[in-house]
Specification:
single chain; mainly alpha; about 0% strand
Length: about 90
């Protein structure tokens, strides 16, 4: 179906640029955006989450107390790079 929609000039320029970069049409991108916005919130909420990145051996660094904001701020303000703290 054909229809006319008014879109902000800057938004259209960004849309056209993204369409060109992806090799798709502006219409296809708009269709996808409308389709996504009409999707039921329950379906979106049930989408599987990607796994969280894991690094290091785990646990807190010595001297770190996550319940004490002031001490955390002091540690961060010391300017010592994270890798040197290990």
């Amino acid at each position: 179906m054909r229809t006319t929609v008014t879109i902000d000039d800057q938004l259209y320029r960004e849309l056209k640029s993204r369409a060109g970069a992806s090799g798709r049409t502006v219409g296809a991108l708009i269709e996808d955006a409308v389709r996504d916005s009409l999707r039921a919130p329950e379906a979106i909420a049930r989408a599987p989450l990607p796994p969280l990145p894991v690094s290091g051996s785990g646990g807190l660094m010595p001297g770190v107390d996550l319940t004490d904001n002031a001490s955390l701020r002091e540690l961060l303000d010391e300017g010592i790079p994270l890798l040197e703290r290990r």
